[in-house]
Structure formats: C-alpha cells, structure tokens
C-alpha cells in the first residue's frame, strides 16, 4: 500500500479502503476494465469530504462510482495513472420522505429502484425509470442527468431534483439540500453539478420530486404509416389527453424483426409486423378512464389516417407485456450485435426527414440495417446500426468509425445532439470536441479549472483539459 | 464623450450609443436612479459582441437592461463608477416559431406579452405570466429566472427554456440555441446563465417551450379555514384534477381588507370577508369540462371540511374578474405602503407553522399587519409587512431593518429561501452573504472569476467579489 493510501486509511474507519476486485470495475458493455489504486467506500458525507481533501492535497485523481451502469465509460478510468475509486455503495439511506410535500431525500448510493419503492410506500411516484434501475444509483443518475422512459411527462433527472448535497474537489461540503420549488438565490450550482459526470465534485445526497400515483394506467400500441404520422399522432394525443401521456415510444419494423429473430417466444402485439408503431402510456388522476381515452384517441387517429391498427392493453399484466416488448429491444440489439450505437436527439419536426436521410447515407457505406427506436416525444432516438441479416458485426470493423461519423455529422447538421441522454464519459470526448460550440467548450474548461484546479475529479471524462 | 465611448461609437452603427435620459434608469419602486456612462442599444448579437469585447478590453463595466421591471435593483447601478448600460430594446424579433415542436425562438429584447401573443397566434401557450408582462423583456425574465403565476404547472423561466444564445464577457458568442428536449453534452451552461442576473454574460436570444392551449379554462375561489386546509385542498385537487391545475394562489383576509380599503370599486368574491381563501385555476384538454371538475372538487372539499364556501367563474369574463382580485393585491399593497416586503419560500409542509410564527414574531416588534399571499402551490409567499390601520410606514422606519431580519432569519431557520423568485440584484447582496451556504458562495465567486475575470458584468449585483 502506498504512503498516500496508508495515511488516508488511518483517517477513515477500518475497511473503508480495499483493493479493487478483478472484473469489478468493468464497463457494462465489456469494453474496458477500469483501473483503481484502491476502492474507497465512505459511509458518510464527512468521510467523502475526508477522502477528497486528502486526494486534492496529494493530487491523487478520483473516479466516483455509482451503480457502474453508465454506457459512456464515465466510471471507467482505463488509461493514465490509476485513480482512487470512490464507491457510494454504503451511502444508500433514504434520509426522509415528505409525502405532503411530494419530496424524498435520498443518499447518492441509493439504488434507483429502491427510491421508486420508497416513494410507492407512501403512495407516491418517483418517475425516473430506465432499464438499469435495479442497479443504477441515484447519485450516478444525477451526475449523468439520466433520461429514460418518462421524460416526456416528468422530465429528466435534472427536472426531478430540488436540491443537492455534494462534496467539492477540495473536500468542502455544499449543503444545498433544499426542498423548495423556487429559490432564486445565486448561480445554479445544482444544475452545474447535475450532468457534470463526476468531474466537478461528488453528489452525496439529493432532494427529489415525487408525484401522485396515477389512479388509472393504460397502454396501447398503434400502427402508424411513418414517423411523420407518429409525430402528428403525438400532437393529437396531447390535444386530447393533455399531460396524462407518460410515454410515447417509437418502434420500427426492424426492431420487431430483431425481436422475432432473437427472442421468438416474446409475444408481439401485431400478427402482421408493421413498418412503424408507437407505444403510448397514459396515467390518469381522479375518475378519468384511461382505456376510454385511448379508445377515443384511436378512433380519432384512425379517422385522420394516423393509425391503421391498434391494440389497447386490457389489464395491468397486458400493459406489462406491452412494455416488455419495448424493453426487450436493447436485449435483441445486443444479441444481433451492433456495428455502432447512437443516442441522439434532433429537433422534433425534423425527425421524419432525419430518419430516412441517415439510412440512405449509411447504405452508401455498406449493407446495414438501422434499428431506430426510442423516446419520440423527446426527440430522442436510439439510432443503432447493425449488419445485414446473416452477417456479423466483425465484418464491418473497417467502416465502424465512418458509420458513427456519418450519423453524428448528420445529427450535427440537423442541429441535434450526439448524446441525448447517455452523456460524454470517456467514450464521446472527441465527439464533444468536434460538435460542441467552441465558446461553450471554453467556458466549460474555465469552470472546471475554477472548481477543480488540481484536476483530480474524474480526469479524462467529459474534458481532456 | 470619453475616448472609450468615441472609439466604441466608431465601431457601431450611428445612433447605437446615446446618453441616458433623466428618470429612464429608475427602479420600478423609485428607490434608486441608475447611473450610465451611456446607453448602448445594439440591434444584433454581433453588435452586443462588439460592445462587450470593447468593454472587456478597457475594463469598462456593463449593466444589461431588459424591461427594467426587476424588483431587486439588478438593473440599477447606483454607486461605483458609471457603467455602460446595454439595453436590449432593439433586439425584439421573434426569430422563428415551430408549432409542431412547441418551440418559439425569441430575441432577448422581446416583450414577454409579445412572446405570449406570438404563441397564441399559432394556437399555442407560452405560460410565463407575471404582473410586469407588458414591459418585462424575455432576456430579463431569463436572467432573473422569473416565476409568476403558472409555475405550479409549467415551471419557472428556467424550465421553459430549451436553449440560449448569449455573449460572454470577452465578447465571444455562445450559440446554444438548441431546440432539443434532451442534450447531455457537457456542463449545463444554459442554467448557469439563467438566474445569473447579467453577471456572467448577456443573453441575446432563447429557444422557449410552448404548450397546447387549454381547450377549457375555469377558475374558482374557495374559502378555506386556514393555510393547512389550503395545502390539504391542493393535495385533494391534485388527486382529482391531476396536472390540469394551472395556478393555486393563497389570499388572506388582510389582503381582501387592503382591497376594500384602497380599491373599493373592485368586486370581491365573497359578501362576508373570509380569513383565508384560495384562487384555483384549471386548464383542460380534450372533452374535459373544467366547471364540472371544479364543482366536483368543491363537493369533495366541503365534505372533507377543507372549504366552507366557494364561487366558480361562470364565464371567461368572470374568470378575468377573479384574477383581477388576485392581481390587484400588489397595487393595494403599494397604496397602503409596506414597511418591508419579502419574497420567500419555505418547504411546503411547514407553511402552516411558518405563517403564524412569523406574525407573532413581528407583533413583538410593533403594531403591524402582515399581508401574506401568493403562489402556495410552489411554497412561495409574498410575506409583506404593513403599518397598523391609520398609521404610516414612515412611523416604522426605525424597526424596518429588524422587520426584514426577523422574517428572513425565520425563513432561514425553516430552511427556506429569502428570494424565491425576485433574485438578488443589488438589494439582497447582504442577505445572500448572510444566508447562502458558504461553500456555494465560494463556488459562485470562483465561477464568476473564471468567466468574467475583469469583473465587468453587472458589478455589485449578486456578488460583491
């Protein structure tokens, strides 16, 4: 053990520091094993402070670790000097719940599903919902401004956070754990920390917004002729159903084919596989009947030529089956094996032009399939590129970089984002440098330098500096 | 004209610079006349850039000016060297509207009411709404993160902004005018600029969120026994009406007395003046009938003992009359003349304890009346202190500072905010220093220094530095 670690260990309860176990710091897609000088597991905000102060004084770099489910290598320091990994796994307390305020205060290491369950326990909804919710930790969700399935109605992690407690790189503790809806007292440090991916400090706790549980929920698949119709259907749904629409997901025929190919036992909603369909989820309050609302929506959509077929879930279990179709698409994608995956957003009205233009440009590069699906209501598509049927991703290794570049250049031309919800991490640093406004990049560097002058926080993530 | 101004004038179209007219830079409450070296009226983002670059090089300080309606002297440099005032009054264009995306792009100098009207012109709603909307400019609304009447449903200015164009202190232009719902590419510079009150740069344009126009609107006054019942009524209303509640405003008997005293011709909702009442506004979509919803809410509230009387507006004009009552309270307050006014928020569940505890503490100081009213759903109260009936505010001059201190200390003890929506400006700099978390304050100073190293932007506002 180095002198630094020995000195630090002496300041902390026994067992706070331990060596990393092999494989423990792997990226979920298995691309890189992270390095670690050691893994620190602080049990309190004060211990996080002690650790950061020591690291800052010794210029030892730090990588914060939540559930390790991030997809852009933000939690994986795979080159440079080995950092101290600070895992929040012991700080999992729900510190308080205020049902009458619709607020929950959770420590950063709390598993997202546990936060959801704690809310449900007082008849409230914490609406952040994503595939990794069983292992992702709320601190990581905030550090990466996680999105997921219900952003359309409830916003992303940023919108769900009222206040933060965080430890800054010098070890000072910011107590910003307010549970206020309105507070205009100075710069928005909260939103600066959210989405900074552990490069400006470590979030240790958060005050989060809760919502009433819907009294009625229903889901439907509608077959739409094309993405433009899907957008028009969304506008119609908003006009008829207002803010009761919790999710509005686009699914392509390619995605359904992938399910047939890789998960043949999964029950699909339509006997004849459509070119495009949408999954609509509705949650109501009071006496509103979500089934009737979806039936009325279908009638109006059918009349307007926006939907040719539709199925409405008749029970909670059928609704869960519908969602299983949507949520199995990433698994099907993994089994097919993508050449390159892209988490993009473009302005809503440009989606119908963007989707085919991208496909045409990619077909120039090779015989590929595009599975385009996702959060249409947010303009956020997972636009993933796959081998032709019967071929393997390894055959496409030589065009991989060009595939990514083609998609991202087109997104940029459409004034979109090359990382709608996954963040930058270490995977997209070059993309950030290529596509981000240079004035914003310069401001980001100045802020990083101001708040972390020794550059200890998650070096190599977001900014190369 | 100084050398600096002469050199600057030569770089700009004729007439861009002019002397300030007497009275032009007055604070809306008439407390301070602002100073100005000159008033610059750029017509484009490029001209803003030219001006800031020159000021930064010459270390000439700058005060950005929108509609001048801010209540905390953020736009009024009343001591120190006279700054160059940069008025956005010529940059008023609506650059684009995208109805199918629910997005409008407006220049910073656009009057808030004009943005609302432009949205209405394409059958959309821009929900930011506040008393000064006829003269406030959207750039100022964003710089101060304005709140207003519809925050409960639609959020504050921050929540309504998708993207910004801004000129940083060195004159560099940040083109962040994205119209994306999701974009996780780097630090949240947008939210850092929003609410920084012109101390980090000048917002020149914004992409703003629009919403469908409600198809039905209705308003009601309910008499409630006390603030706790008002909060319980809000929870009941949310359970029954979901997200259709656009506003939920608390009004005290003191406020109604003030109306009777100063605006006797204004029609009040109840023959017998209640101790507390709430104004509820509902906007629906589809076939929902907001009148029936409010009737049902009243029945449930009456049964639960949360409301003893109620009136529902039967027409649009009656709804407007109801709102006139609420919106006349600030005018009544002005006519009575406050000893000290406070724009505060406390955690929602603590409001019922806070209100009487504050009144009791204030009565220890002197014979005062408290008019407590405002945005209950947001936990944001205007908690304003007035002379006893028949007495004048000037008689209270000696306890004024103590009144403010008493309210703000109590707010702080309740973990609240001493500026829920008005901001800090120059009026509340000492409050910020007294009540803000010291670690956040230090981070704010570091950010200010990093982005505005010459300290030219709105010096004296927010931070003393």
TrEMBL record, chains A, B:
Which keywords describe this protein according to UniProt? FAD, Flavoprotein
Alphabetical list of PANTHER family matching this protein:
BLL6224 PROTEIN, D-2-HYDROXYGLUTARATE DEHYDROGENASE, MITOCHONDRIAL
Q: Which Pfam families match?
A: FAD-oxidase_C, FAD_binding_4
User: What broad taxonomic lineage does this protein's source fall under?
Assistant: Bacteria, Pseudomonadati, Pseudomonadota, Alphaproteobacteria, Rhodobacterales
SUPFAM superfamilies per record:
FAD-binding/transporter-associated domain-like, FAD-linked oxidases, C-terminal domain
Keyword set includes Flavoprotein: yes
Q: What is this protein called?
A: FAD-binding oxidoreductase
Matching entries from InterPro entries are given as:
FAD-bd_oxidored_4_C, FAD-bd_PCMH, FAD-bd_PCMH-like_sf, FAD-bd_PCMH_sub1, FAD-bd_PCMH_sub2, FAD-linked_Oxase-like_C, FAD-oxidored/transferase_4, Oxid_FAD_bind_N
All copies of the FAD-binding PCMH-type domain together span 32-213
The organism of origin for this protein: Celeribacter arenosi
In the record, the note on similarity to other proteins reads: Belongs to the FAD-binding oxidoreductase/transferase type 4 family.
Q: Which PROSITE patterns match?
A: FAD_PCMH
Q: Does the keyword Flavoprotein apply?
A: yes
């Amino acid at each position: 053990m180095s002198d630094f670690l020995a000195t630090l260990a002496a300041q902390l309860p026994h067992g706070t520091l331990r060596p990393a176990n092999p494989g423990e710091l792997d990226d979920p897609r298995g691309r890189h094993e992270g390095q670690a000088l050691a893994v620190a597991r602080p049990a309190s905000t004060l211990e996080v402070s002690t650790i950061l102060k020591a690291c800052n004084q010794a210029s030892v770099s730090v990588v914060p670790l939540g559930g390790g489910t991030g997809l852009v290598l933000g939690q994986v320091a795979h080159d440079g000097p080995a950092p101290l990994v600070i895992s929040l796994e012991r700080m999992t307390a729900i510190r308080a719940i205020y049902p009458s305020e619709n607020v929950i205060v959770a420590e950063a290491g709390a598993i997202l599903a546990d936060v959801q369950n704690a809310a449900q326990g007082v008849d409230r909804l914490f609406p952040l919902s994503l595939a990794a919710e069983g292992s992702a930790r709320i601190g990581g969700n905030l550090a990466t401004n996680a999105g997921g399935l219900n952003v359309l109605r409830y916003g992303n992690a940023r919108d769900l956070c009222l206040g933060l407690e965080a430890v800054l790189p010098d070890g000072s503790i910011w107590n910003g754990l307010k549970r206020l809806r309105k507070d205009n007292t100075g710069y928005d440090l909260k939103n600066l920390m959210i989405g900074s991916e552990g490069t400006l400090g470590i979030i240790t706790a958060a005050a989060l917004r809760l919502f009433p549980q819907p009294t009625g929920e229903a889901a439907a698949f509608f077959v739409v002729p094309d993405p433009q119709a899907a957008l028009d259907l969304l506008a119609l749904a908003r006009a008829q159903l207002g803010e009761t629409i919790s999710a509005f997901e686009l699914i392509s025929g390619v995605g359904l084919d992938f399910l047939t190919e890789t998960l043949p036992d999964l029950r699909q909603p339509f006997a004849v596989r459509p070119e495009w369909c949408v999954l609509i989820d509705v949650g109501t309050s009071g006496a509103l009947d979500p089934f009737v609302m979806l039936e009325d929506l279908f009638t109006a959509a059918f009349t307007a030529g926006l939907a040719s077929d539709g199925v409405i879930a008749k029970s909670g279990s059928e609704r869960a089956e519908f969602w299983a179709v949507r949520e199995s698409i990433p698994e099907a994608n993994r089994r097919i094996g993508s050449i390159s995956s892209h988490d993009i957003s473009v302005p809503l009205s440009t989606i119908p032009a963007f989707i085919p233009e991208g496909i045409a440009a990619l077909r120039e590069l090779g015989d590929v399939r595009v599975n385009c699906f996702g959060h249409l209501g947010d303009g956020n598509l997972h636009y993933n590129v796959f081998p032709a049927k019967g071929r393997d991703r390894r055959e496409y290794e030589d065009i991989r970089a060009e595939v990514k570049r083609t998609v991202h250049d087109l997104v940029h031309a459409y004034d979109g984002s090359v990382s709608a919800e996954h963040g930058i991490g270490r995977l997209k640093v070059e993309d950030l440098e290529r596509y981000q406004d240079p004035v914003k990049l310069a401001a980001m560097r100045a802020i990083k330098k101001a708040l972390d002058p020794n550059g200890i926080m998650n070096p190599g993530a977001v900014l190369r500096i």
